[in-house]
Amino acid sequence: MSLIEAIKQLILELGAGGIFVATALEYGCFPVSSEILLPFIGYVIAINGYSLFHTILIATIGGMFGTTFCYLIGRIGGKMFDKLAGRFETIALGVGKAQSIFEKYGKESVFFARLFPIARTYISFPAGLAKMSAIPFLVCTFFGVIIWNTVLISAGYFLGSHWEICKAFLKMYQWQLSGGIACLVILFFVFRNASRKKNN
Predict the structure, then answer these.
(1) Percentages helix, strand, coil for the chain, rounded to the nearest 5?
(2) Which of 89, 101, 141, 178 is the most buried (most CB within 10 A)?
(3) Which pTM value belongs to this model?
């Protein structure tokens, strides 16, 4: 049985629990790409009549659980983290890239990194290692995760059986899509702040 088939069975058998487990594993650095997992979840819930809103909410809670686990490993389990990084080269490389982003951009990187490949999965570790406060970490993580989940799960939901188009598109244009989403978020805050200043 392929990983995708296993995830499908997990979701069909456990429903909301399966969605939670699948997304918690993905955000917790389990070797399955969100570019495959999230559109596939959207497709599965579409053909089984599940609520898109509730699915995004459950996937976001699962994502928060997975990222918080990685954050805690970095924050209080330094030795455990060193063992993981020493044993798994992929984790060491991913964390190294995320570390450089975190050192350069600070806590805001926890939000924006969620929208970009590689860094989005591993940014929790350097945030934990840097002893970033839990509340800002959770807030930044929540908004980054819910935006990413909404875009990809909705894509799979509306594409239906053609959900793999989303996977192919992301493989070619993920950086452009991530950059576009990040720019929209920045513009939102710029216009919101300008509107507030105007009203004051």
Answers:
(1) 85, 0, 15
(2) 141
(3) 0.76
